[in-house]
Amino acid sequence: MVQNPHSVVNRKMRCFLICLAVLVFTVVFASCNNSNAIKEIKVGLHNNNELKIQVDVLTASPADVYAEYWEDEGADTTKQVSPVSKNTDRHRLVLCNIAPKTNYAYHIITVTNGVKNISKTYTFSSYDLPMFLQDQFTAKSASEKHIPAEFKDGLMLINKRYAPGVAYLVDYKGRIRWYHMIDDLGFKVINFTKDHTLLSILGRNDEPTSYGSEILEINLLGDTLLHLKKGQRDFKQTIHHEILKNKEGNLVTLFVDQKIMDLTAIGGSKQDTVNGDGIMIMDNTGKQLYKWSVFDVMDPLKDRNLLKTKKDWMHANSLNYDRDGNYLMSFYNNGQIWKIDAHTGKVIYKFGKGGTITMPAECNFTQAHAAHINANGNLMFFDNGVEKHQSGVFAMKLDEQRKASKIDLHIQLPKEVFNGRMGSAYMINDTSVLVCCSKRHIIVLTDRKGVLLWTMETSVPTYRAGFITSKELSPYLKP
């Protein structure tokens, strides 16, 4: 990545200032000889990230150490607390929830044998975001009073899919509150896990839009917890569109399954290749634990359009879990959502045109993305609306026993934000839905009637816009 020369100069100046601060601290603490005395403090950026400050603390003997920090605007400012570094004399404290260009005060707290000591108060100033991260998001609302409190009390998860890849956590004002960047790969897909980590598929710019060949898991401190690359152990396939964890903590993803077939009967070659989709589970080392393929349950030769679609026959675009632990899998090319038995691989139902569940006439969706079970227990998905050239959102009450369904929620979005590819829709509360219209570079918050309460233009066509609550982000970030 080409660096701005001014940025390079600024970074050198930062390093100089940091070194100067360390020298001063070293002199100040040199005469301390208490058992849990602080000998040295170094302050700098964590992983070269302007929104994370790293404080390295050296104590005279092993101790528990943490930092309390606050915006330096007065004693009544809310204090934030870093994670605790336990029973060592070398401590790395990472301060998150940092705002750009802001003055902060902090002190270091040491605890040894139950005795707590608080250092004097020190200060630092955070830097502005790099130019390439500024003006990425523009949020608008006719009236802030129409924005639900629940939406203000959380952050949106957004990804830049081409290199340099960036994962963002953004608040309702369009401010970047957290980010993580990778120079030579894009964040093709990203999800927030039950372990409060960010799990993603990484891919090169020359790989298709939501396809990749690496899996990365990081925590909210920005530290790498897992990094798998195609070719390690059983990880041989190209993966795409989804990466999850199951309840055992294993990796669950979609993969491209290639099948060599004789297509001469329909005008193809004797050794033709059909690209289908499958579900694969791997452990954290890349060992395959389970594999399912669409070829297990469907014969491609029954598809009249196979010669046109063989390079991407079904185009699976999302994978999730039903409440009973079975899979929900959406396909773009046939416009269906399948429920698949996670143990036997049998298709339990097919929802959509030509499916096994009866639909109301009003449920005329064409192509779906981000299929999942919402908080009300209903099947929810983004309707691309390709045929009618109008996108929307559905939440459906399904009766699997009677093979019937009825509409719980149907939102028709304004035609100006029609989004024929990609997209997502997630409930914020019972009355509002966060909708991502990827191709239009816009994310909207709408009520159940389709009235837009808030909009945010994005500089990047993010695949989805997830929402993470304040509770899930604690203690690292506070919206």
Sum up the structure in keywords:
Immunoglobulin-like, Neuraminidase, Aryl-sulfate sulfotransferase, disordered N terminus, seven-stranded antiparallel sheet, five-stranded antiparallel sheet, globular, mainly beta, signal
CATH fold name of the largest domain, please? Neuraminidase
Report the biggest beta sheet as strand number plus sense, adding barrel if it closes.
Answer: 7 strands, antiparallel
Instruction: Give the low-pLDDT segments.
Output: 1-32
Compute the gyration radius: what is it? 25 Å
Number of strands: 33
Protein name: Aryl-sulfate sulfotransferase
InterPro entries: Arylsulfate_ST, Arylsulfotransferase_bact, Quinoprotein_ADH-like_sf
Pfam families: Arylsulfotrans
Signal peptide: 1-30
Question: Mind explaining what this structure looks like?
Answer:
This is Aryl-sulfate sulfotransferase. It comes from Mucilaginibacter sabulilitoris. InterPro entries: Arylsulfate_ST, Arylsulfotransferase_bact, Quinoprotein_ADH-like_sf. Keywords: Signal. By secondary structure, the protein is mainly beta. The chain has two domains: 5-125, Sandwich (Immunoglobulin-like), CATH 2.60.40; 134-473, TolB, C-terminal domain (Neuraminidase). Helices cover 8% and strands 47% of the residues. It has helices at residues 5-29, 149-152, 306-309, 470-473, and strands spanning 38-46, 49-71, 80-81, 85-95, 103-112, 115-118, 122-125, 137-140, 154-160, 165-170, 176-182, 186-192, 198-203, 211-212, 214-218, 224-229, 239-245, 251-261, 272-282, 288-293, 316-321, 327-331, 337-340, 347-351, 368-373, 379-383, 392-399, 404-412, 424-429, 432-437, 442-447, 452-458, 466-469. The strands form seven sheets. Strands 1, 2, 3, 4, 5, 6 and 7 form a seven-stranded antiparallel beta sheet that branches. It has a five-stranded antiparallel beta sheet with strand order 8-32-31-30-29, with no helix packed on it. A hairpin with a 4-residue loop joins strand 9 (154-160) and strand 10. The longest helix has 25 residues, at 5-29. It is globular. The two termini are 31 Å apart. Mean pLDDT is 91; it is low at 1-32.
